[in-house]
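Hi V.,

You were right to ask for the full record rather than a summary. Here it is.
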Amino acid sequence: MEVFSGRPRSPERRPLTGRSRRHPAGLLELRSTAGQVLLLQVTIVFLLVVAAVVAMVFQTAQDALEQGRRESVVAAQSFASAPGTAAALRSRDPTALLQPRAEAARKRTDLDFVVVMNTQGIRYTYPYPREIGKKFVGTIAPALHGRTVIEHAGGPPLPTGRGTAVQAVVPVTDAHGTVVGLVSAGITVKNVAALWLPELPIILGSGAAALALSVAGTAMVARRLRRQTRGLAPAELAQLYEHHDAVLHAVREGVLITGADGRLLLANDEATRLLGLPADVRGRQVRELGLPEPITRLLSSPEAVTDEVHVAGDRVLLVNKRLAYPQGDRGGIVVTLRDTTELAAVSGRAEVARERLKQLYEAGVRIGTTLDVERTAQELADVAAPRLADLVTVDLLDAVLRGWEPTPEGWRRLRRAAIGGDQQVVPVYPIGEVITYSARTPQLRTLREGRIVSEADLRQALGWWEQDPERAEKALEGGLQSLVAVPLRARGVPLGVVNFYRMANSPAFEPEDLSFAEELAARAAVAIDNARRFTREHAMAVTLQRNLLPRGQPDQDALEVAWRYLPAEAGVGGDWFDVIPLPGVRVALVMGDVVGHGLHAAATMGRLRTAVHNFATLDLPVDEVLGNLDDLVVRMDDEEDTGDAAPGQEGTGMTGATCLYAVYDPVSGVFTMARAGHPEPVVVHPDGTVVCSGVPASTPLGLGGYPFETAELSLPEGSQIVLYTNGLLQDRSQDADLGMERLIAALDGSGERTPEETCQAVIDALKPSHADDDIALLAARTRRFPPERVAEWDVPSDPAVVPSVRAQGRTRLREWGLEEIGFATELILSELVTNAIRYGSPPVRLRLLYGRCLICEVSDGSGTSPRLRRAATTDEGGRGLFLVAQFAQRWGTRYTPRGKVIWAEQLLGDGSPATSHAPVDFLLDQFDDLDT
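Predicted structure:
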């Protein structure tokens, strides 16, 4: 950064110190910067020259030695391979032959010596004859094996000096490759070292030229520095910088200066502190500093700013910005920052309070959206994480999840109900696991004391450690740092604990956080308690309704039956169904739905189901059953209108119900049914074809005075009829027509399915994610009664035919293998047929059905029903039905469009009624006519 503008300094300007300026010193004075730089450069040049000479000497020596090695090897190998060398070595006087040749070769090649020796190293030649015959100084072992040896070694005196610097030893071989002698050639060090001396003047001349250039360059730089410092001496520059730096960094206002290219040129200490700038900030682009976007945009734009307020982290800054050079075109801006955080502290606290209130409002909206305890607990965890804590767990008393009233005895056993946050980082108990807390854990302490328990450092929390040391160790390794346990209390009753965890890289819990956590837990506890109360009431209603519904399938041979019942989430409805065995191996199917929800609807359903059972026991036609139910619902409505129920009581004002009543006769394969406002049943044929039954719709129960239409369906064996309530077809997401299409699609191709599989397939396809109404579903597959187990006779209206009827019955029982009940059956047949002939009207017909029990049916055209009575001793009649009641398991009368049917059932096998001999003998005396 250039501090001054660069304008010429006026002659009358005085120095900053107030003293008169002395004459400038010489440019190259040693005490000046230029003189010191010059001295440094001279030293460097001198050292470079010395280093160059040393390097040249060393390199020249190395090159000379290398060249000497090559020349020595070439000379030795040339002499060794010369013609006649090997032969001379084998001669009687090798020295006489080889010494002249060796000396000639030495002088011709400028070598220092050429020595020929035998294989023991004894010299044959040498420049000094007195050394001939002595041992060669050097290594000869590798040469004896055919290899060349190059080495540095000393030896006897030579003509050029003492000592050998480089010598080569090569073998001399004969025509057969046998080593017969050795040849060594070498050069002394004295001859090699003289090679570098001619180059020394060049190096010294180059050093002198470099020194001259340094002096000239230093003088030029010194003059330029003097101009750029406007004539100020170094001491004056240092003093000026010290004053500038002291003022710049001591002020309580941040100062930033940026250049025209957007780089930060200066930032004083206050600006660095306010903006959190790094130490190496100078010279970097503004957009690379990681400042908040408003501050970055402010520093990058050229517009002037006056007293603008900006937020940087947790500080409120008052910003002013001006151009650095308003009269020139050099660019750059100057920004001043003033910290006004203290002035905004009051407004900041108000903002924090407003944010807390906003968060509490949001929590109130998001927590308690349903009346499900576990879902409410999960909503609490989701609201608190990660806003208040990194990990949130909610542990509830097991009694709370079941809807019971919590007791202090169950405080130590809590069940994990919800987890919020990243549970993959920290190992925690999974949802649904029952946790038995020890007495020293923060969770049990906060339950027992009813206040917040905070653990700032979990490494020091012994109670938390003791609960599960292994899990605690893993949690701490995952970075868990602190815990705040808050009790969940509603209406003074503890419900559980919510645990707020923070990681090591998160700030510690502040007092404001604790108060917020306590308020959040208090609001969530009320929602959880409401859900608990609803769960209890819902469980009671579901229990009541399930107890009112069938618990098992009755014994019957007509239908293969399966069912499903799914209660609503928000409240139990009045859906019910029933399978009622009827006389004559017939079965009644009932499906109904009471208007409304809750305990009142469940109780009303129980009353209607009991009434249907009673009407079915009377064996009334299907339309009369619905008519009697309609009258009952009307009376129940009247009771509600005149009762003492408080206004607004749940379930009051029930206006009606729907019902479908069907009777199936497996002998004829006919379904007789009627429906009062109930959805139409669906029929699945054995080939999988799905059709609607076509039963006409009648008005719902409770309107009064409207007839109910009856329909008869003749179904082949193996067909399925599906009954259901409207909760299966419609909910908030779809209407009834769409639900019917989905039901038909789910049943399509179900001809081979069992009723159990059919029910499951329908539930899987149509069950809503959130059931707003009860769902009742019943599937029944038809069976046909075997024809070979049915016997029918037309009986003339003549008492004389009674013995023949008994005989026919005896014969058929023998064919069926039922001889053990033949006597009782004959007695029942005799009495029933006699009564029909005597008191009824034609036509009289007898039918025997052999199934789970033996059924005797006698029909006639009269509508008069017989009554069981105890006859007096003087009475001549009145004992027939008494005998039937004694020998039959049960008996009764049902009416048909053409008269009535009197029936009696007898259990088979071990179920037959046991009779003693005395009553039998007594009863035998009552017969007027016996077949002998």
